[in-house]
Write a structure and sequence with these properties.
Elements (H helix, E strand, L loop, with lengths): L16 H15 L21 E7 L5 E8 L5 H7 L2 H9 L17 E5 L5 E4 L3 E2 L7 E2 L8 E6 L6 E6 L5 E6 L9 E4 L4 E5 L3
Antiparallel strand pairs: 1-2, 3-4, 3-11, 5-6, 6-10, 7-8, 8-9, 9-10
Length: about 200
């Protein structure tokens, strides 16, 4: 078993009160996933950014860096995103939804590779930083490149959290918390439906 596959145990047994509340709300949201009204408040649902360029770091599927590239932001209409994405991925990435815990296809995946944005294929996380957080969502202790993600203040559901989105296309990915393992102490808690796993070719 690889070090990245080991189970990280938080300081206190079980999940925290915050995670319990979040999982309860996520379960409710998952049961009514087709209805946009159950998703995060409009204040958190940041509108698509204007067109322009951003710097993105690209990686091969085995995690090797290819360098930094200036790329065009990807901005599409609701209708265009809806046609491109599966329904669950559309609601999560474009309307800040949350899948039910333990329901996503990647929460218990331990294969080697990288996780890309399902909307624009930007590299987001390396399997080497993935760990079992015990929450039922794929969790990582850092992104593959800080430049590839954006952090947004999220005050929805009466909680203060930091939402994480894709830098290139503004897709909502999940949230980051300060209760992760060393060396960063962070837990990037992501939605499987916002990701596409690319298996390492090495």
């Amino acid at each position: 078993m690889k070090k990245s596959d080991s189970i990280y145990k938080p300081p206190l047994p079980g999940v925290t009160r915050r995670d319990f509340l979040f999982m309860t709300m996520a379960t409710f949201a998952g049961l009514t996933l087709a209805s946009p009204s159950v998703f995060a408040a409009d204040a958190m649902r940041k509108k698509d950014l204007p067109s322009g360029t951003v710097t993105i770091f690209e990686f091969s599927n085995d995690g090797k860096p290819k360098g930094a590239f200036q790329v065009e932001r990807i901005v599409k209409t609701e209708e265009e995103w809806h046609k491109q994405l599966p329904q669950e991925s559309f609601q999560i990435t474009r309307h800040a939804g949350t899948e039910r815990p333990y329901s996503g296809k990647y929460w218990n995946l331990h294969s080697k590779g990288i996780y890309r944005c399902i909307c624009c294929d930007t590299a987001l996380f390396n399997s080497d930083t993935k760990y079992d957080s015990g929450t039922g969502w794929p969790s990582y202790w850092k992104p593959i490149a800080e430049e590839n993600v954006e952090k947004i203040d999220d005050q929805s559901f009466g909680m203060s959290r930091i939402a994480v989105s894709c830098k290139r296309c503004n897709a909502h990915l999940g949230h980051v918390f300060n209760d992760g393992p060393p060396p960063t102490g962070l837990r990037y808690c992501m939605n499987s439906a916002a990701l596409r796993f690319a298996r390492s070719e090495a």
